[in-house]
Write a structure and sequence with these properties.
Helix content: 10-25%
Order of helices and strands: EHEEEEEHEEEEHEEEEEHEEE
Strand order of the largest sheet: 6-2-3-4-18-17-16-10-14
Largest sheet: 9 strands, antiparallel
Number of strands: 18
CATH class of the largest domain: Alpha Beta
Number of helices: 4
CATH superfamily of the largest domain: DNA Polymerase III, subunit A, domain 2
Number of domains: 2
Structural class: alpha+beta
Amino acid sequence: MVFLAKTSTSGEWKAVSSAISTLVEEATFEASLEGITFRAMDPSHVALVDLLWPKSAFEKYECDKPFKFTVKMEDFAKLIKRADTKDNIEITTSDEMLVLRIVDGYKREFLLHLIESTYGPTPLPKLSFNVRATVAERAFERMLIDISAVSDHVTIDASKDRLVFTGKSDIGSGSVTLEKATQDVLELEVKEDSKATYNIEYLSGMIKATGSASDTVALEYSNKMPIRLELKLSDLGGRIHFYLAPRIEEK
C-alpha cells in the first residue's frame, strides 16, 4: 500500500489535531484517492466535527487504495506540537504504525502506534439553514469572550441587516451587534429571521482549536436548530465543519 500526505507548513495538521481532540479522544481517519476525511460526535452527542481535506490541499499526496487508520489524539497532538509553523510535515503508515516526519533543515521522525477504533460510523445531520454569515474570526471570538462575562450561553438573533448576540444570567445581561457590510461581517444571507441559543464553552473550544488556520468563520443555522461552523484549513483547500445542538429553553 502506498500512502503519503505532505504539507509545507504544520498549521493545517495542528488545526486538525486540535479541532478533533476538542471533542473526542481518538480519531479514525479515512484516506482515499481523493484525500482525507474524518467525522465523529462527542460522547455527550451535543457536538460533531466533520473534516474534508482534499488531495489538492496537500503539497504532495499519494494513496493507491482507500483505508482507515486510528490514533489517540492526545499522543498525536504531542508529536504535531513538536513542529514549528514553517516545518514540512509528512504522514505515512507502516506495519501498524503512523510515521510522522518533521523537516526543517534536519529531519525528525516519530512512530506512533495505531489503535483499534471503538467508534462506529457517524452520519451527518440532515439540516436546512435559513441563515448564513461569514464573520471575522477575531470578531466572533471577541464576542464569545464578551458574552461569557455574563452567561454560559449565547443567543444568536439574525435579521437581514445584522447579527445580534446576547447573553443573560442572574448577574445581568449583555449584547454584541455586528452590522452587515462592515469589516467584521463579510457575508450575511437571511432567508428567514432566526434565533437560537448555544453553549459558549463548546463554541469557544471550536474557534480556538483551529488557531490561526482560518481568518474567518462561516456560521449557518435556523430558528432553534443546530448551528454549523465552517473553518478553512488553508488557501489551498480543506475545511472543518463543527455542528452544535441548540440549548432547549425549559418552560
